[in-house]
Design a protein that fits this description.
Blueprint lengths: L11 H19 L6 E10 L2 H6 L5 E10 L4 H10 L2 H5 L3 H5 L4 E12 L2 E11 L3 E11 L8 H4 L5 H23 L7 H12 L11 E4 L2 E5 L16 E4 L22
Parallel strand pairs: 2-3
Antiparallel strand pairs: 1-2, 3-4, 4-5, 6-7, 7-8
Helix pairs in contact: 7-8
């Protein structure tokens, strides 16, 4: 006599609940200590009839954002969820995106999710008078639910020297860009001198230290020169990576980055 598979003996409604329960249990078990659970949510945003009629080639936009779970402290989890809600990223809600034709894609990328640190960068791209894009970065403590600042992460006495150290990398990149301008045949002398002057004024300052990413290889300080669209391609890349070991003299021993320093 052929045995009936046990799953066939379970009612469909009960089987569905069982599978959901097993899936949730396995997901919870797979979370590493000090990390947060992430489930991507993808929405094809339908523009309102008024906007779709005016811009028939832009009837939809794609929005992908993270839904978060898994922290032991529900209050901290709620703080992180609120902080990273779509409206709080670029200050625009899903309904506002529907009523405007600019957005083409909204997305995110996780850079780090361990040691009670959550590093995520959101991006949005769209079309107005010309194609454009923006990004917004967050480094969050999963212990407090707050954005981590330079004062939280680095020794206050060392901040001026740290800013100088990052600025040295910025200035080296600027020198390379200025050298390349000499061979750019699309620029006349006036344009070339104007760009040199603009680039020479750039400096990485104390207030720029708040913008940094945490990754597997170290900490990357971010710098946005804010050039207008017409010369944006000539601005510094603005990403300056330092290993955790190199930053050991600057990282607070009681701060959120301390577990990342070799020997701690």
């Amino acid at each position: 006599m052929r045995a009936t598979p046990i799953l066939q003996l379970i009612p469909r409604s009960s089987l569905a609940l069982l599978l959901v329960s097993v899936s949730a249990t396995l997901t919870a078990q797979s979370l590493a200590p000090g990390s947060i659970g992430i489930t991507p949510r993808r929405i094809v945003l339908q523009r309102s009839p008024k906007v779709a009629k005016q811009f028939p080639e832009r009837k939809t936009a794609v929005v992908r954002y993270p839904t978060l779970r898994g922290l032991d402290n529900p209050q901290t989890l709620k703080k992180v969820q609120t902080l990273l809600a779509v409206k709080n990223v670029f200050g625009i809600s899903l309904n506002e995106y529907r009523e405007d034709a600019w957005l083409e894609e909204f997305d995110y990328k996780v850079g780090y999710n361990k040691n009670y640190l959550f590093d995520v960068t959101f991006s949005q791209s769209g079309m107005g008078a010309y194609p454009d894009s923006q990004s917004k970065h967050f480094i969050i403590s999963l212990r407090t639910g707050n954005v981590i600042t330079a004062a939280d992460a680095f020794d206050g006495k060392g901040l001026p020297k740290l800013a100088q150290t990052v600025d040295a990398k910025l200035q080296a990149e600027i020198r390379e860009i200025i050298n390349d301008l000499a061979s750019d045949k699309e620029l006349d002398n006036e344009q070339r001198e104007s760009l040199k002057s603009t680039l020479s004024e750039l400096k990485f300052k104390l207030e720029n230290l708040d913008e940094f990413e945490v990754g597997a290889k170290g900490i990357t300080f971010l710098f946005d020169a804010g050039f207008p669209h017409v010369i944006q391609a000539l601005q510094p890349d603005g990403r300056y990576l330092f290993s955790f070991a190199a930053l050991k003299p600057y990282i607070r021993s009681d701060g959120p980055l301390a577990p990342l320093v070799p020997g701690n």
